[in-house]
Amino acid sequence: MIEKLRSPKFFVKLFVSSSCALVIAMYLMYLGRGNNFFFDEWMFVVSRRGLSAHALLSPHNGHLSALPVFAFMVLLKFFGLNHYEAFRFAAVIVHLSVALMASLLVRRNYGWLIGTTVFVVIGLMGAGWQNIFWGFQIGFMGSLFFFLLSLYLLDRGRSQNRNLYLSLSSIALACSLLCAGLGVAGLAVIAMLCLLSAYRQRTWWIPIGPAVMYAIWYLKYGTSQAKLSAADGVPLYASESASGSAAGLFGVDRIWGALLVGAFIYLCARLAIRRRLTMRSFALIVFALVFWTMVGLSRTVVWEPNASRYLYVGIVALVVGILDVVHFGGAVALLSLRRKSGIVFAALLAIWGSHASLVQGAAWLKNEGDIVGAELAVVSMHGDQLDPLLPVDPIHAFMLSVGDYVAAVNDIGSSAAIDPQDVANASEQARLGADLLLNSLVTPQIMGDPSICQVENEAGGQIQLTPGSTVVVKILQATAYGISRFAPQEVSRAGMQSIEAGLYQIDFPDDVVEVPWTLTLENPADVRICDM
User: Fold this and answer.
1) 488 shares a domain with 361
2) Is 193 strand, coil or helix?
3) Is the same domain home to 266 and 359?
4) pLDDT under 50 in the chain at which residues?
């Protein structure tokens, strides 16, 4: 080891590896700039702020998520709701940790060049954008990272005959289970390697502790989303996931992914005939198969074998798994310079082919966060007037109610809302979302005495009103009206609402934004504006 540290090559490799990691981290942070809290993240924010056993151990969609929940608690404590960059940075760091572990597993067998190539390919994996840019996914990626770490330590412990590595492998496996249900697939693989190999007398105990820990949690808190009735669909789900992962690696159509998977199956068949396949060579492939089976059994309602967060796992498993099969199966005795160049060239094709998905995914998540941020700006202005049980957004944040968000803001002391003055300049979808919430504040109130309408003025198709104003309208016969403010009424998500004949008073709430309200009438001829 001392001689290695003295070698100039070591420092060159260290500099190149560190530079790659730094450049990728900076690029991913740049692409993901402007993101905001989105979807499931709000479950951690509103219901798991206090440090308690229930907050840490309650399942999230069936997952044991103790470590990511704790991480969110710490990040919220130090950075609050108005610095999502900290959560995004945490996701990038965990993602690069996954890439690092994958490269270390490959580097032991193929050397520094191929290991670094694998790191860069996974680091810039376009198909996995959902995990990379979404802070909530630290749990999913963390589970994969700790499994890869457990496998790496198991290999080191068995090859060097050191119990310390074996103990750390068991701890890493437990951490994988504490991050997400993905750890169950890791447990199955580590158990297979420890209980069925020639080293079982030294390694049998490694999966026992994590398995007992998970079983105790499951008996107390666990809920299963798996349905045995979905077993018939598992082969199709697994095949679509495998071909989708192979295609996602290169950013090509799924048919090309299916061909790549078919070629890999042919290679495995040849090695099996020659009896060159071992359990260790198949470890990552078994991991992927168990994972796809678990998802196929539990995600029966939402059939999404090509969801980005699932492709991420499949791509990592296939990249490392294929290289493991080639190495441990002895398919290639030694990589020549030509073969190494071929692998590097294939890696460049993968980065180039999947880059568009990386950019588009970052933009999509930013847009989703912008929508919720604009809606939360409305909550920050009118939270005391809105129904506390009203969802902030029925699509993008249906699990977050107005009351829960206000309570979280009061507790944490910061807000995830954008500046209310910026809502008018937000994307059209964000302005539509803000208007949808504002619509719930404007309800025509029936006035009992029509005679108080002294002067009846002809109404226009659209009437602009300043915030805080009141208008009295006389409806001659049933018609429809629409309320808008930041977005055009013709694209409003609230739509036009019917109103019966009668005299109505409409109050438009006041706030810090000077953008006027707009009252749109379907048939202005049937409406009169009253002077009182």
Assistant:
1) no
2) helix
3) yes
4) 1
Q: Which stretch of DSSP H or E encloses residue 366?
A: helix 337-382
Q: How far is CA 440 from CA 386, 494, 497, in A?
A: 7, 9, 12
Q: Specify the 3-state DSSP secondary structure of 461.
A: coil
Closest CA to 113 of 347, 351, 446, 400: 347
Distance CA 31, CA 25 (A): 10
Amino acid at 457: N
Give residue 151's domain range: 34-366
Overall domain count for the chain: 2
Amino acid identity of residue 77, one-letter, is: K
Q: Is residue 424 part of a domain?
A: no
Domain boundary among 366, 384, 404: 366
SS (HEC) of 227-270:
CHHHHHHHHHHHHHHHHHHHHHHHCCCHHHHHHHHHHHHHHHHH
pLDDT at 302: 65
Residue 403 lies in a domain: no
Question: Does the residue 495 lie in any domain?
Answer: yes
Which string of b and e fits 79-109 if b means at least 16 CB within 10 Å? Answer: bbbeebeebbbbbbebbbbbbbbbbbbbbee
Handedness of CA 227, 231, 232, 238 (dihedral sign): positive
Of the three residues 337, 366, 395, the one that is the final residue of a domain is: 366
CA pair distance 276, 476, nearest whole angstrom: 86
The Cα angle at residue 159 between residues 212 and 140, in degrees rounded to 5: 45
Domain contains 163: yes
CATH classification at residue 503: 2.60.120
163-214 pLDDT, tens digit each: 899 999 999 999 999 999 999 999 999 999 999 887 888 899 999 999 999 9
The span from the CA of 436 to the CA of 180, in Å, is 35
Kindly state whether residues 476 and 355 are assigned to the same domain: no
Give the predicted TM-score (pTM) of the model. Answer: 0.91
Distance CA 68, CA 74 (A): 10
Check residue 297 and give its pLDDT.
85
How many Cα atoms are found within 13 Å in the side-chain-facing hemisphere of 56?
A: 10
Q: Are 342 and 449 in a shared domain?
A: no
Q: How big is the CA angle at 137 (ends 131 and 142), to the nearest 5 degrees?
A: 100
> What are the residues whose beta carbons fall under 8 Å from the beta carbon of 302, sequence distance 6 or more?
none
CB-based contact 110:103 (threshold 8 Å): no
CA-to-CA distance for 371 and 388, rounded, in angstroms? 19
- Chain segment 408-432, per-residue pLDDT in tens: 999 988 999 999 999 999 888 899 9
